[in-house]
Structure formats: structure tokens, C-alpha cells
Amino acid sequence: MDPIVEVVALLLGFCGWVMVGIAIPNRYWKVSSVDGNVITTSTIYENLWMSCATDSTGVHNCREFPSLLALNGYIQASRALMISAVVFGTIGLFATLIGMQCSKAAGDNIVLKGRIAGVGGVFFLLQGLCTMISVSWYAFNITQVFFDPLYPGTKYEIGEGLYIGWCSAVLAILGGCCLTCSCKLGTSEKYPYPYQSKGTAYSGVAPSRSQGANSYGRNAYV
Fold this sequence. Notes:
The chain is of the alpha+beta class. The chain has 4 helices and 7 strands, in the order H-E-E-E-E-H-H-E-H-E-E.
């Protein structure tokens, strides 16, 4: 594998992993919409863990969701997917660092290092897929409620936390693709077959002196 590709893939995966850590605690996953409201006295915004509100004076008030089981199913699934993305990204970072050619962790075995780097690329792909599914699923529910004319409650719009999650997923998928498509998994050098002619094979090894003349068959003297 090209060392430049390894470094680029590591940087992409690392940036994606950092952005996942930024997106998870971000409070602005969805923000209350002002569309159709004549007077807006407060702004409500939520993420996977809490709901917050701010009034016109700038005072913030946040409360965590009281019960996990009382939440909507997509919020629980998004939580699990985002936590899985952090775990996959951490494993992918360690595997990529070990499998890089400039690393001495796995010795000088190029084949083994390439396989470890490939495993790191797979974990980066899993990180990106988990993040993309979580963020897209959350955004789908926001838009579904927003465009429902019969919904009586507060409507929300997509917040900045989702955009950070999308960027994180794209970076992680790009880093994983660079590693998995460029590494050589277990390629070995192929040697030519020995010369064969009518049932005899030439091994390329000259007879030793210790064998002497007795090493020749009887037909050799005819």
C-alpha cells in the first residue's frame, strides 16, 4: 500500500471520529421552527439526550429525558448507533496505526500489516454507516412531522448537529474505502514451476561430489 494513501485514510478516519464525538453532545439536533408563527417567545431544541429551551432574554433551561423506555424508537436506535460508531472508530484508529508501514508495532511483516490496515478500513466503514443511518433516520422523522399538515404539536427543523454527523459519516466512509481498496491482503510472490519433460523434472540442483560416479545410472556408460 502506498504510505501516502495510508496517511490520508488515517486523517480522514480520525477527523470523522472526532466529529462523531462533537455531534453526539451537540444540543442542536433539531430546532423548533418559526414557520407559521407570528410571535416567537422561546426556541426549543433537542438532541438524543435532552431538551432545551431559550427565551427572548437569552436564558437557557435544559432537562434530560426522564425515561429511556418512554422515548421514541428512533431516538433509542440513534443513541445505540452513535455509540457503536464511536466504538468502531476507536478500533479502526488503533488498527490503522498498527498496520501502517511506518509503524513498528507489527514488526516487518508487510502482509500482516496490510491485513491489519484492511481491518481498520472495515471498522471505519462501519463507523460511517452507523453514523449515516443514525443521523438520516433522525432527520427523516423531523421532516416527516414538519410536512404533516395535521400534526398539532411543535414542528422542528434540522439542526447543526445533524450536519456535523453527515460530514463525519462521509469522512469515515472515504477513509475506510481508501484503506480497504488499496491494501494488499495476503499477496505472495509466485515462483515458476520447475522444468518438466516427459515424466522427468529438472530440480536445478547439481549432483554433489559425494555421490561420485555411482550417482549415474547404468545407461550412462553406453
